[in-house]
Amino acid sequence: MRIVVLKFGGTSVGKISKIKKVAEIIENYKKKKYKVIVVSSAMSGVTNDLIKKSKEISKNFSDTEYDVLVSSGEQVACSLISGRLNHKGLKSRSWLAWQIPVYTEGFHKNSRIIKINKSKILKYLKEGGTPIIAGFQGINNKDRITTIGRGGSDASAIMLAKFFKAERCVIYTDVEGVYTTDPNKLKKAKKIKEISYEEMLEMASLGAKVMQPVSIQDARLNRIDVEVKSSFVRKSGTLITKKSNITQNKIITGITSTNNDAKITLLGVKDKPGVAASIFKPLSEKSINVDMVVQNISANGKETDLTFTIKSEDLNKTKNLIKDNKKINFRKLVLENGVSKLSIIGVGMVTTPGVTFRMFQTLANKRINIKVISTSEIKISVLIDKKNTKKALVALHKEFKLDK
Ligand code: ADP
Ligand code: ASP
Ligand code: MG
Predict the structure, then answer these.
(1) 335 C-alpha to center of ligand 3: Å?
(2) Pocket of ligand 2 (CB under 6 A)
(3) pLDDT averaged over the chain?
């Protein structure tokens, strides 16, 4: 059986007219004799709206009910797609995760798909049906509904491609593919033809919303090629694939930036074993995600300074947790909102000396101050004032010849 998995994101199903277009795309694959498995997200804005409602109902809305509530948007989109296919004379029906089932494990709001039961869907495909499957959701071993993290229908699609051994997995979205940087932030961004899992994972984790990071991990682990393309225009998109398939390597493949970051510095922390763990333990207990962490070498062997970044929305909570933490001693707490993490990513930097210098010099030429630096083999990230993000993005995009 030649199976293709097609995933449609929120903007691709955001309006009735767009859903009609989606049905045409599906019909075209059917004409090419593919067995088509469709995964849909909720209509754009719906998931955000449901989350807002949960907060209005209660500040302590439970995680289990959160999953029931926010997964409901996908049901609407799936049934509308099926309805349109039926209208065109095609056999189709919607499937919610519990009906298949799609099994997940892990915490509510952030589960991971571990297994998908194939029998009912395979039977339906053999009968000529086109299943429209709700992305983003699953069930756990207690038969409770779960969700798999924001943007999670990308991961639903990739796991379906894995379990059904699909020939292709196509992610349809509102841009033509993966770009050198967010095309909605920088007009000069260029579409990338092919990108390795490693680079895509870094880009996704560092702010390129076009693919959800977990989905790229799943694709990499299972060696699934992923095509990202537009549901609005008929043009070739981007192929996410293994390194050895990539023919052209630039030094830098892409640049990302984040929006809502905040920086926290503890000055004069008593330098003794376990102090960093004592600072971060209460944060992890409250699910506060700590990102960049820098600790200075203690000049006098007694005191050190520790800086880290978190999401702006967690700033107040974090401040209180640190102030109430009896296990740590420090001289001063400095908080800074409105910072942005800018990252350059590319496997080419492993073999090219001087990339770090070029990045720092480019920022220096624009008089942009670097607050924190962190690196891995294939990325360099700097923390800068949020107001300088665009300026830095433009300059670095040009410096590393991504405009070309
Ligand atoms: P969908 O609803 O299809 O899941 P998303 O909104 O999750 O779509 O992702 C698509 C968006 O990702 C684009 O509209 C674009 O603004 C943003 N984006 C951020 N970085 C990039 C990038 N490097 N390449 C392409 N799109 C990007
Ligand atoms: N609808 C979900 C969200 O907005 C899942 C997705 O879009 O992939 O996060
Ligand atoms: Mg998305």
Answers:
(1) 31
(2) 9-10, 41-42, 47, 73, 135-136, 150-154
(3) 95
Cβ atoms of residues 99 and 110 within 8 Å:
no
> What are the structural domain ranges in the chain?
3-174, 257-399
Show the tokens assigned to 100: 């298949």
CA-nearest of 315, 147, 170 to 230 is: 170
Quick one: CA torsion of 381, 386, 387, 393, rounded to 10 degrees? 30
Cα–ligand 3 centroid distance for 277 (angstroms): 34
CATH number of 3-174: 3.40.1160.10
Quick: pLDDT tens for 381-399: 999 999 999 999 999 999 9
Ligand 1 contact via 208 beta carbon (within 6 Å): yes
Statement: residue 259 has pLDDT above 90: no
Atom of ligand 2 nearest to the CA of 151: 8
- Classified by CATH at the fold level, domain 257-399 comes out as VC0802-like (3.30.2130)
Model confidence pLDDT, tens digit, residues 285-319: 888 999 999 988 777 778 899 999 999 999 999 99
Residue 173 beta carbon below 6 angstroms from any ligand 1 atom: yes
pTM of the model: 0.94
Strand partners of residue 240: 195, 226
106 Cα–ligand 2 center, Å: 18
> pLDDT-based confidence at 255, cuts 50/70/90?
very high
